[in-house]
Structure formats: structure tokens, C-alpha cells
Amino acid sequence: MMLDSLFTFGRRTAVITGGSKNIGLAIAEKFSQASLQVAIVSSNAEHLNAAQTYLNGRGHMPSVWLCDISNVSSLTPMLEKIHAQYGSIDILVNSAGILDLSTVEDTTEDMWDSVLDVNLKGTFFITQKCLPYLKTGTDPRVINIASNAGRMGGYANGMSYTASKGGMISITYGLARKLAPFGITVNCVAPGTIESDMSRMRDAETHKKLLEKFPLGRIGTADEVASAALYFASKESGFSTGAVLDVNGGMFMG
């Protein structure tokens, strides 16, 4: 199915971390519908295979890449192979993430490190390693998927998650300034609670209390977040950089 859109995308290549499930998979599908070439990165082989089967069944042909983005030494070899396959890397979507639901009192050093390693360190270093390709890409884009927690602290998530997503937003601002001279835009989508494996980790009472905080009276869908990312990937978004687009049902306004 081809996406009927007023936006234009061209024959460009998008690398999507965390692209095998939930929001990342919705982005991979939306980008594929827009005729972008898609490379999905995940640290879970089973999820990668399932994502590839799902997208193949809908007429899309992404490539899949097994990689733990917190292992910085693995990033350059993977990106070299993706570039060799497609001839360009024009868009990077940083969607890989780990959710922490620990209380302040129960947060461990191991949990803190594992969340920050993927959500923040991984985001920065794969962006760094992509720069040689983005600098020569067509309408190059970096799109970070943060969280409402990074905007206003969140309610039910742990502090490592809050810190990592706040850091992603700050990195968006900083990289937008640093990379603008190369024509690379850097933007961020900050979802509120989205129907996903992460949201289903919360118990029913916590979910009910969260739902009461959304002025629109519901949680969001992965497809709604993917649509926001699609705008930032489009050629028409070329004058937007350092922006944070809130997709949160009105929980945070500012």
C-alpha cells in the first residue's frame, strides 16, 4: 500500500533503532508506506524476525539488523553494511528504549546503567556514527523518540527512564545547533502513554489513574506517534529543527 500524502520523501534510507516492536515498528511501517527504504535495528532476534514477517506480509521489504546499540563498538560495522546495501543513510530514528518502573527507593545501579546505556548513550553514539553518512545524505534527518516523562517527570515511571528521556530532549536541542551547518535537522517526538508492551507493564490501578490525567480521555496509539515522526522525515519539514512535538493527549502543554 502506498501512503497517500501531501508530503514528499524521495528514495531515501531510514535506520530505525528499536524498530521491531511497538512505536518503532509503527514507524517502520509508516516509513515503508511512504516508499522510504527501511533498516530496522534491534537487540532481539525473535522480535526482528517477527517484524520482518509482519512487514513482508504487508508488501514491505525492510532489512533487519541485530545490534545492541549500547555496545558502541558494534555500531560502525553495522552502519557500514547498511550504507553498502542501500547507498545512503538519510534518516536516523532513535526509538530504542528500556522502561524502568522502579521506585526511587528501589532503583539499583544496574537498572540505572542499563536504561541510560540504551536510551541515552546509545542514542548519542549511533547518531555520532551516522554523521559521515548523514552529511552526504539527501535531506538528512535525526528523529529522537523521547517521552512525556522527559518533559514533566512522568507519574508511574522510574527515575532512570525520566533522566534518559530528559537527556534525549536536551541532546535534540544540542545536536540541532551543532548539526545545522551540515543541513541535518534534529527533532524529537515526545509521546505520552501509548498502547504498547511498555504501557501493559503497568498494573490496572496505575493504568486507571494515568488515564484520568489525560484531557482527551484516552491513551495514544503507536500509529499516532509514527505519523509525527513521518512529518519530521518529510522534505517539507526542512525548516524545523530542535523541535519537540508532544503527542500526549494534552497531559503536558507548554
Commentary on this structure:
- The chain has 254 residues and is α/β, with parallel strands linked by helices.
- It has a single domain (13-245), classed as Rossmann fold (3-Layer(aba) Sandwich).
- Helices cover 44% and strands 14% of the residues.
- The chain has a seven-stranded parallel sheet with strand order 3-2-1-4-5-6-7, sandwiched between helices.
- β2 (37-42), α2 and β3 form a beta-alpha-beta unit.
- α1 (22-33) packs across α9, α3 (75-86) packs parallel to α4 and α4 (109-134) runs parallel beside α6.
- The model has no long low-confidence stretch (mean pLDDT 93).
Major pleated sheet = 7 strands, parallel
Strand content: 5-15%
What is the count of distinct domains? 1
Classify the secondary structure makeup into a structural class.
alpha/beta
